[in-house]
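Lecture notes, continued. The same structure-token format from the folding unit now serves as the input rather than the output. Read the line below as a description of shape only.
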């Protein structure tokens, strides 16, 4: 399958990048977490093959929420709330003409997708969550969370390699298998 054209929809003061392809009877909105990029994904063979397979039975919609990938950046002191990030999802569905969609959410987009489904149950036909969690940090009532020290270490590593080729193996499916 040829790489679909990246388009943009304006949400608030930002442009949100998205792609729509496939012509199956099911609308499927694929949400990826921090580090996603709708154009970059097509350069990774495993991910491109997965998208092609999904588009064989659905009309697949991909997007980069504000502050990620090909979408406009956001100021560090103005990070969008989960409620605002559901507006990105709604805008993509609206411009794509989707009245009812299945949502496939991974990583940190899981809580955003859950919130969208709760806010707009009439627009969501199914919700699939993969490798996501209710929260990340450990707490007294959530002992399986990640320690603050581990999060600090990850943030420092990302600050060092973000935007470089060194990030690639950390951000791709094949890199996670190494």
């Amino acid at each position: 399958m040829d790489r679909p054209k990246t388009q943009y929809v304006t949400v608030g003061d930002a442009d949100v990048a998205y792609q729509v392809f496939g012509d199956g009877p099911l609308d499927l909105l694929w949400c990826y977490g921090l580090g996603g990029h709708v154009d970059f994904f097509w350069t990774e063979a495993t991910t491109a093959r997965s998208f092609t397979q999904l588009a064989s039975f659905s009309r697949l919609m991909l997007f980069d929420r504000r502050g990620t990938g090909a979408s406009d950046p956001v100021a560090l002191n103005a990070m969008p709330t989960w409620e605002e990030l559901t507006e990105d999802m709604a805008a993509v569905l609206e411009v794509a003409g989707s009245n009812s969609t299945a949502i496939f959410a991974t990583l940190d987009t899981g809580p955003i997708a859950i919130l969208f489904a709760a806010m707009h149950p009439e627009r969501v036909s199914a919700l699939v969550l993969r490798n996501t969690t209710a929260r990340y940090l450990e707490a007294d009532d959530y002992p399986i969370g990640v320690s603050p020290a581990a999060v600090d270490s990850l943030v420092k590593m990302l600050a060092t390699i973000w935007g470089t080729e060194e990030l690639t193996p950390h951000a791709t499916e094949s890199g996670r298998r190494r």
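Point for the exam: Helices lie at 45-55, 82-96, 110-119, 148-161, 168-171, 173-177.
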